[in-house]
Amino acid sequence: xxxxxxxxxxxxxxxxxxxxxxxxxxxxxxxxxxxxxxxxxxxxxxxxxxxxxxxxxxxxxxxxxxxxxxxxxxxxxxxxxxxxxxxxxxxxxxxxxxxxxxxxxxxxxxxxxxxxxxxxxxxxxxxxxxxxxxxxxxxxxxxxxxxxxxxxxxxxxxxxxxxxxxxxxxxxxxxxxxxxxxxxxxxxxxxxxxxxxxxxxxxxxxxxxxxxxxxxxxxxxxxxxxxxxxxxxxxxxxxxxxxxx
Length: 245
Description:
The chain is an alpha/beta fold and 245 residues long. It has two domains: 1-152, Alpha-Beta Barrel (TIM Barrel); 158-218, no CATH class. The chain is 33% helix and 17% strand. The chain contains eight helices and nine strands. The protein has helices at 24-32, 79-85, 109-122, 139-148, 164-173, 188-197, 209-218, 228-238, and strands spanning 8-12, 37-44, 50-52, 90-95, 132-136, 154-158, 178-181, 200-201, 222-225. Strands 1, 2, 3, 4, 5, 6, 7, 8 and 9 form a nine-stranded mixed beta sheet that branches. Helix 3 (109-122) packs parallel to helix 4 (139-148), helix 5 (164-173) runs parallel beside helix 6 and helix 7 crosses helix 8 (228-238). It is globular, with a radius of gyration of 18 Å.
């Protein structure tokens, strides 16, 4: 997973610096700005619909978990609609199922539904499971995806990497193909450990050009960013031969 000629440019919730995040418009604009992939967030409504939104509660105070699909605003797309808007790009599907959220489900029905949809869609149309990565901050949720359909690539989302060896070991034990770490923890040690384990590294969320250049030099597999146009230009520039001396 990744690009042999440089890291993948992954639009964080689409082109979220230029368009409303996690919307079809943001996903399509990410493609226009040169993104290779898109990262998006999935939640579950009261009647089991898979919808794209980072927060569990709408701006008007209503929780998605208390709404039926027909009550969700039109600006909140379904996962199936989002996959259609992302045609031609890979998709990092982050499942939101955190214990502190109003939509938390310890039965992990959302993991079952996401996995089943991806495998079903993988048989037809544009979707290629080789261009999919499913992640979650909830270890049980992502384990459920992996156990339900091992053909779906999964990754370990990590916020605290004070012990990078333990994080890499957990990713390997879980059968994951990637680690998605919070950017400040990405350094030479983590990259060496991940490379030895055969894991791709996708840091989030990186908008600073100097830091993007550093991550390119470190050899990350992809960069999750709110500004895919900035990252695209820097990745492309890194492929150019050095000027003559």
